[in-house]
Specification:
The structure is a homodimer of 353-residue chains. Chain A has 353 residues and is of the alpha/beta class. The first copy, chain A, has helices spanning 3-9, 38-51, 66-78, 98-104, 179-182, 198-212, 217-235, 246-268, 306-311, 338-349; strands at residues 15-17, 60-65, 87-91, 111-116, 126-131, 150-155, 174-178, 190-195, 239-240, 243-244, 271-272, 279-281, 286-288, 294-299, 318-319, 329-333. The first copy, chain A, folds into two domains: 24-235, Type I PLP-dependent aspartate aminotransferase-like (Major domain) (Aspartate Aminotransferase, domain 2, 3-Layer(aba) Sandwich); 246-349, Aspartate Aminotransferase, domain 1. In chain A, helix 2 packs parallel to helix 7 (217-235) and helix 3 (66-78) crosses helix 6 (198-212).
Chain lengths: 353, 353
């Protein structure tokens, strides 16, 4: 979906790296995150300032190989040292389908997946993952366990104005972001964490050292260039050297896609979609309803396995059980290329019982 | 050390990546390693063919965020499913100092560090790490436990002709390599594994999916370009468009450095270095003694803590206890920039008791 925008921008985000450049492990030995390129740190702080979606003052910025690595680093950093048993990791269902397998992959003695946060009632320390807007269903989320011994990880990958109104700068202890969802550059594998507590930051950095000894410099430099273009285009308001601003483009495409999808769903009478309350976005300075990166589609009537039902109509989607809920739900990406998205909507609208 | 070479090569290894290129998570959906760029796969196979240091036929090539990630992926893939206890991970001392902390970092229920392979005597399955040439001491290594229930990981990061004679193509079940030690590009964080068994390969790929959802495409493309230059320059023999071949350059620099180091060590009479038997290198077609990437220096006489002793003379080195042996030993990098290396040798040669 974003490819088309970056083609319009042209050579302004081209990176050129020569064979003898950026060879060392180190990026900035004066920073506790010694593998973070200073240019990237600067552009991360700037884009949050421009968009107003997160506080960066008084935070450590930690770069990761995608936000996946930072999620694992956060679990490592927040687990109690030498606890009698692994700390419980919970998230309100429906939750991101990879959380359970990522958490339990190595059968760690430090942390353990404990399922839906809403039914979590164990005493003692726990880690709650708060994804807002939520993957898969797009809802704005807050923590639900709310006990004194909990620590929170806020996964804010989708807290950008093309997906949801930006109501205020997020101001949590540990927040995760990624270029794959903000600018569309999944192949770079670049994410970042904003972390208040220095000791937590230090342990996250230690994890990344032990896991991959830092993060690709080439992709960090490229991510810096792309984020710079996002900020530059936003600061120019309407157009930027003949190109629409990044968030105006992406907001517009998402709005069009959600309009097409809702029309198709309404015409079929077999499916339903979540309804979202409209809210004011301080960045775009308008009121709109969230238009998430995923459609959380429900099969109504007596269709119990929505994933199989859709597969029978040549639509690939991920069933609700992966997200900890009923198989009547599926998740469908709203970020595919135009052709694929249009084909999906067309196929969906022609399904009749 | 390698920077100077790549400057001479000039623009031939420059990468140019545009904003709209390589945005997807996927590189090649027809490959079981779906995040491996085909260009990189091709250049990995080619450089091994040109150098003759590893068999790639009938192997799966898996790319990782440095060989660190592939080491962890190998532990995950080789651990027995649902074993009654974590499998033991061993390596002959002196071993790479990060093996114990990387292995035990998450207190995995799948695998556990069990120390020096030479004193390992437990029954049942185990994983033995064979680093050859060895980090820290440069020796050619073979497995030492040799029991039927063992699986082996061969870390061949230093099996390149600037460090050691290439006697034959390595032909093991699971072999690890990295650009950081072969071409000097540590900042790319690109390593690769050559894996015979398909099921092991599949599990390693699964690990990388759960850990970082693939590997930076930007760095993969840059690594492909650099490896291509290494192969091109080698195939041209003496010189390549006015530039010395990569391995002739790096062999020559290592030979000079080892000569200077041995002179300094001999003049001081306080230290000793390992002696290596000369062997024939099929690639360079000459007989030479190994000239490792690290000097494994021993303090003689009554100096028990070599690391502290050297620190007193403004030389930073890593003490033997990190590698599972006596503090009379230290490891010093032989790959630093010319100025730093020359300063190290100068300081070393002026130490007298």
């Amino acid at each position: 979906m974003y490819e088309h925008y970056w083609q319009q921008v042209g050579e302004k985000t081209t990176v050129v790296i020569r064979g003898w450049q950026h060879m060392s492990y180190f990026s900035d030995v004066s920073n506790i995150c010694w593998f973070l390129e200073p240019e990237l740190a600067e552009e991360i702080a700037r884009v949050h300032r421009v968009v107003g979606n997160a506080v960066t003052e008084g935070r450590h910025i930690i770069v990761g190989t995608g936000s996946s690595q930072l999620f694992l680093a956060a679990l490592f950093a927040l687990s109690p040292r030498d606890g009698p048993e692994p700390v419980s990791v919970v998230s309100q269902a429906p939750f991101y389908s990879s959380y359970p397998s990522m958490t339990d992959c190595l059968k760690s003695g430090l942390y353990k997946w404990a399922g839906d946060a809403q039914s979590y009632s164990k005493e003692g320390p726990y880690i709650e993952l708060v994804t807002s807007p939520n993957n898969p269903d797009g809802n704005v989320r807050r923590s639900v366990v709310n006990r004194s011994e909990g620590t929170l990880v806020h996964d804010l990958a989708y807290y950008w104005p093309q997906y949801t109104p930006i109501s205020s700068p997020a101001d949590h202890e540990l927040m995760l972001f990624t270029v794959s969802k903000s600018t569309g550059h999944a192949g770079m594998r670049i994410g970042w964490a904003l972390v208040k507590d220095q000791e937590v930051a230090r342990r996250m950095i230690k994890f990344i050292e032990l896991n991959t000894i830092g993060v690709s410099k080439d992709s960090q430099l490229r991510a810096a260039k792309v984020l710079k273009a996002v900020s530059d285009s936003s600061e120019h308001g309407g157009t930027w050297e003949g190109v629409e601003s990044f968030f105006k483009f992406s907001y517009r495409v998402m709005a069009e896609r959600w309009k097409l999808l809702r029309e198709a769903v309404n015409s079929s009478r077999i499916f339903s979609l979540p309804e979202f309350p409209p809210a004011h976005c301080n960045f775009l300075n308008r009121v709109f309803e969230p238009q998430p990166a995923f459609a959380w589609l429900k099969c109504e009537r007596d269709i119990d396995d929505c994933e199989s039902f859709l597969r029978g109509h040549k639509i690939l989607a991920r069933g609700g059980k992966h997200f900890g809920v009923s198989p009547k739900y599926v998740r469908v990406s709203m970020l595919d290329r135009d052709n694929n998205f249009n084909l999906f909507v067309k196929r969906l609208s022609t399904i009749h019982l």
